[in-house]
Design goal:
The complex is a heterodimer. By secondary structure, chain A is α+β, with helices and mostly antiparallel strands. Helices cover about 30% and strands about 30% of the residues of chain A. Chain A has helices spanning about 5-10, 20-40, 50, 55-90, 185-195, 265-270, 285-305, 335-340, 350-355, 370, 385-395, 455-465, 505-520; strands spanning about 95-105, 125-135, 140-145, 150, 155-160, 165-170, 200-210, 210-220, 225-230, 235-245, 250-260, 275-280, 310-315, 330, 340-345, 365, 375-380, 400-415, 445, 475, 500, 520-535. Classes of the chains: A alpha+beta, B mainly alpha.
Amino acid sequence: MTPTKKIEEMIMNLREPVDVRTRDRILGNLLNVLRRRKTTPTVSQRTIGGILGGNPITRVAAAALVAMVLFAYLGMSIVYSQSVYANMVKALQDVNAVHISGWTTRICPTHSVAGDEPYDTSQRYEIEIWEWFISDGGYRRFDRQGPITLWDDGERLHEHHADKDRLFISTTSCRARPYAAKFRSMTEDLDSLKERGIKTTDMGLRTMDGHQAKGIKTERGDRRYDIWIDSRTNLLLENDAYTLMDGQWRQDMHRVIRYDQAIPTDIVAYVPPSAKSVHYSSDIDPRFEQWNQRLRRIAAYYRDHPLPDAMELLPCDYDGGPLAWCYAPGRLPGITEKTGQWVMPLRYTLGGFLQTEFKPVGTLRVPAEIAAIQLNHDLITKNEHSGQARIEFVLGELGFELGETVEPRKVWVAHYDGRPLKPWRQVKAPVPNPNNEPLRPGMASSTACPSTIGDLLNGFVFYQNQSLAADGILTIDETGLSSDSPTSPDYRSAVAGEHPYWGGEESIEMARTWFLEQFGVTFTEETRPMTIHVVRRRQ
Amino acid sequence: MMLEDRYLVWQLKRSSEWALRRIYNRYETDLFALARSLLGRTGPAEDVLQDVFVKFIESIDRFELTGSLKGYLAQCVVNRARDYLRRDRCRAGEPLETAQGTPSRQHSPLDAAIVNERRERLIAALAELPDEQREVVLLHLQTGLKFREIADVQRVSAKTTESRYRYGIERLRFLLNGQVEP
């Protein structure tokens, strides 16, 4: 079994920081809540103890009375609201289609990306929802609330954000899993009735669209629903929701619900629009399909062949082009579980592979004709093999080897002037990139990444040595700042929250300025003898 | 810590922004980690974190600190996460993890994938624990609460808390058997 200590350590290591922008947003929202609270006079609430006074007998007797009254009050309301809920769920079983119209001020998309701001709650957004079952029992849902449109075609769930020209596609979770209320869009309406401890108030009768409706007000905490139910069918006809803010009930939703109406043809035939950015859940992402099939073929191969003792380089049996997403190694179905083998797809040039794996950065020289060799292979390897071992194996399989030479190299020696450092989360790349444009010098190549000064210097060297000629700038860290891996909770050794991209000549001065302004790190240029690793044909 | 927490709560009752920042900064990482592990996703964990603090601010007038503030907030996260999971079962759509999480710090692709896979297995195994065991394991290991403190906020005995923890870890050992290296 896995040792207890190891498991405890792994759970502790699950921690990761809140994204800086999200953190700022949450704290900003909280401060707004606090400021709103400041403008409302607070009511000093006396405790029951305070009301009842100090006599123990009086206190016990009175507390018992309060408890009885409370119990009787809550008990009645629970029975009432839950019976309404039960009747409504039962009535819904005979319904085939639901249409909901109205408005809401609360737009909550299921999906979002880092940096999305919450929707403005001072605005009303139109609601148009159709939910129905087709003749073979299949399920469909069209749900438009403001700029967000959900379309469930029974197989895929599409969530289109019109305001951001964005589409999320995932597998529908409704398939073969109908839930109690049958219609998902009615979840909130029904939840307002079924929870425990709900206070309900009878609102009398009224006529709606020729139907007699009975009204019930339900309250729990800061949420209130006024619902109108068809007296004859027990179906919900109207639902208004309120939130208690600054001592006032503010309406944030109005829904009118109708049943088994003819579904408009444009809704039945709805097709989600194409969008600028499309995000798939990984189980259906078409980009992964070819790769998953390849993994299954390799697994089948190893059912007839022995697994390698060390590593094996298999030529790929298809030309999938530059599959950037296959950068992620895969596992072998039916094999990995027992042996721990990985499949590392090599779909780029030999130079690209070496650049990714080789350390220390900036000290590898690969002749251009060797660097340009196009790989279309899969490396079968195990966790225990280091990046260096993988490099030597792949080079060996292709008839190359690594040699060493010592040469004078231009190095930047980094010094620190001792100024107090800013909190790492506040240190960002010099060029903002809010729209995720292609990287330009100074833009962040990663975000929310607690980085040490060593990480930042290595990043600079990495980008300055893209040519694999081993003639770019190297750095030597003499800052005295810690380069220990930053760990939670305080990420003590981290000095920045973003890694800038420093490619090209134009980055050099920008980097020099940034290191000075952000950390008080200056560079002196020297020439020092350095070991250079050279890829050559095997002798 | 207790004394400072009491002072911060006292300040927050007087609507001190400084106190709110201080409390938030102090407990954000632990509470977010807890929510993230309970929910398995970043977006909902952020929602829960915010909700807990909003409720805390809104009810601060009635709030009396009787034990550990961290323990109290951690239990709020647990309760809120439970509510979220219950409601989530009724919601449409599988989540797409679009948040980047903590990017690899120049790890090779293989290293990064290994780390991710181990992490996914652990999260999956945690999800298989009964709620009360998972909560104790995470409260203890991720927020650093002592069994006594967890017992106080969960209103059970410390012995019960310890038993839940032990059973939880045993179950994880079984579920992760052979899948992580010793």
